[in-house]
What we know:
The protein is of the alpha+beta class. The protein contains 6 helices and 9 strands. It has a single domain, classed as archaeoglobus fulgidus dsm 4304 fold, CATH 3.30.2170.10. It has a 9-stranded mixed beta sheet. α4 links the parallel β4 and β5 (173-177). α3 crosses α4 (161-169). Residues 59-68 and 218-223 have low confidence and may be disordered. Its cofactor is Mg(2+). GO terms for molecular function: deoxyribonuclease V activity; magnesium ion binding; RNA endonuclease activity producing 5'-phosphomonoesters, hydrolytic mechanism; single-stranded RNA binding.
Amino acid sequence: MTVHHPDFAPDPSLSRAEMESLQREIARSAVFTDDLGFDPALLDDPIARATAEAASDTDETADPEDRADGTVPLVAGVDQSFLLDQDRALSAIVVLRPAGSEWEVVERVHAVTPLEIPYIPGLLSFREGGAILAAVEELTADPDLYLFDGSGRIHFRQAGIATHIGVMLDAPSIGVAKKLLCGDPVASTEGLAAGERVAIRANADVEGPNDIAGEGSSSEGHDAADPDWPTIGSAVQSKQYDSPNRHVNPLYVSPGHRMSAATAADVVLAFAAGYKLPEPTRLADAYADEVKAEYR
DNA sequence: GCGACAG
DNA sequence: ATCTTGTCGC
């Protein structure tokens, strides 16, 4: 893995204004359209996957382990836990690769770094980014896609933690949050069935990169009362109960980098395995807890 | 001054 | 995020 934008490092010693202007610059570098570098169908279509694997197996030198054929995507889940009494952050990364209709863990790494700043809504990546990058440095594998805990484009300056790290690595990334930071659901998100989604569009709380309303298209025809706000993510119902007395809240999924909002939601649903959190993030969360226990 | 916001 | 037992529902 290579850091394509070391100049976007989440330096926690920056002033708040500097952090925010860096986020605006990151948002301008972010790509919110699909540019995965692999076929996303491989993530949720066992048949397409089996076909691709069969094709690669005909090549004597093809080795799924090192992605020699470039068809088997490696997906990384990233999550942090904290050792607050020690003022340290622990980032854990779990890398998965397709194995039949399941997923197989190919690598798990972690890193512990000192906590420099407190949690400030909108500046999460400056608190947790250092630990994440340190953990990424420990990776032997080179993931094709990263799933982060937190937001991507659903962010005041369209540069949440998934966008920040995704752009730095120039890797496709997705933000998976349990709470909505900003933006408005286009419809009620109550009582959604598993597999359903509701678009989240920008509102006045969301800045550029370009003219947000109309995304810089025709500068006319948009006023504050009737804006053509772009979709920045979606509420995704990854799990739901049948009975009416017990329910699960949706996840708030947004593209981080090199991904559209629709594909980000597709990917998260493809990783739904009976739990609210998609497998990569769920396993990273469990690994973070596991490692954390060893640090005390 | 009030509101308000991931982890 | 973290501090924490039991408890409700599948």
